[in-house]
Amino acid sequence: MAKPLTIGEAAALTGVSAKMIRYYEEIGMLPAAARTESGYRLYNGFMLQQLGFIRQARNLGFSLEEIQSLVKLWRDPCRESREVKAIAEQHLADISQKIAELNRMQQALQQLAADCRGDSAANCAILDAMIPEHLLTAAV
Amino acid sequence: MAKPLTIGEAAALTGVSAKMIRYYEEIGMLPAAARTESGYRLYNGFMLQQLGFIRQARNLGFSLEEIQSLVKLWRDPCRESREVKAIAEQHLADISQKIAELNRMQQALQQLAADCRGDSAANCAILDAMIPEHLLTAAV
DNA sequence: GATAAAGCTTCCCCTCATGGGAAGGTCAAG
DNA sequence: CTTGACCTTCCCATGAGGGGAAGCTTTATC
């Protein structure tokens, strides 16, 4: 029953910037908002929930493409939770892979940093390790 | 003494694509390559080492901006390893932060996924958790 | 009621690191 | 000599936004 909000108010309430709200509408992730006579967008409770949904999904690291699928499922009364879970599991796999990659970098870089004295001398283990072996012989 | 290589050969040897080699030159990360009379770029041993250096740094997750600093230090005989280490430590901090963020997402999403039955029913704990509480009362 | 400030609209350009592809010149093998 | 592989530059696209200009509308202040 509350009166619809302008885009700025909706942004403040949902934590999604006005810029992004327009963008989500443009790419079809959100239905086109209602408009006042003068063209201002208006947002009701349902739209606010969709914006909040998108915000939460972004917080969980879902891509906009995944979110688009999730929002469709959310709006679909005939959805199967299997489909939702499949998207979540895929995203969990992506997250695990990214973590593994970052761990790899962290391990390698920590090792190099430990070997670097970090003083005023020019000698540096980090820089030394940065040239692939097969290029060392091709020296100047 | 080896004869200089074309950009494609340099790319194959260093693992940096020809496209990226041109780009690195364009943004000033690499000195302009020598050219044949007909305009083909040529790469000698030193350039190959720089390309390998960039490749390794990318593998460690450094941004191009950080790599630009690292390459400058690498070329500078008067560098202090302190400066190199500072860049590495900063990058390690960035990595830790990203890992923490991904761990947070992973924890939250695993919890939600565990609560979702993942069957043919429409009821889904993941979707339910996606609407921020303060928007639940603003329902349709 | 007038005016100023804030908010809205669309439109265009920027990021970062990289890939795709077109149009056209060059080189090497058959 | 032709063919195909390679090179050149130039423009466009990605994802997930941000910045800002020009111009209109609404709200607040006097």
Automatic annotation (TrEMBL), chains A, B:
Superkingdom per UniProt: Bacteria
Location in the cell: Cytoplasm
GO cellular component: cytoplasm
Keyword Ubl conjugation belongs to the record: no
Coiled coil: 85-115
GO molecular function, one term: DNA binding
InterPro entries membership: CueR, DNA-bd_dom_put_sf, MerR-type_HTH_dom, MerR_fam, Tscrpt_reg_MerR_DNA-bd
NCBIfam families found in the cross-reference section: CueR (TIGR02044)
Annotated protein name in UniProt: MerR family transcriptional regulator
